[in-house]
Amino acid sequence: MDPNHIAAAEEVALKLGLKLISFCGAGAYKVTYKTATAEGQIVALKLADRSKCTRERTERETEALKKCSSEFVAKVISVSEHTSDRGTFDVIVEEYLDGGTLDERLLTEKLGRQDIVELLKGLVHALAVLREARLVHRDIKPTNVMFRSGHHAPVLVDFGLVRDLSQSSMTVSWMPNGPGTPYYSSPEQLNNDKALIGWHSDQFSVGVMIAELILDRHPFQSLSMTSAEAIQSVVDRKFIPPCSAAAFEKMRMRCLVQMLKPWPALRYQRPEDLINAIEIE
Question: Whose CB among 28, 77, 117, 277 lies 3.0–4.6 Å from 93's, allowing a Cys bridge?
Answer without folding.
Answer: 77
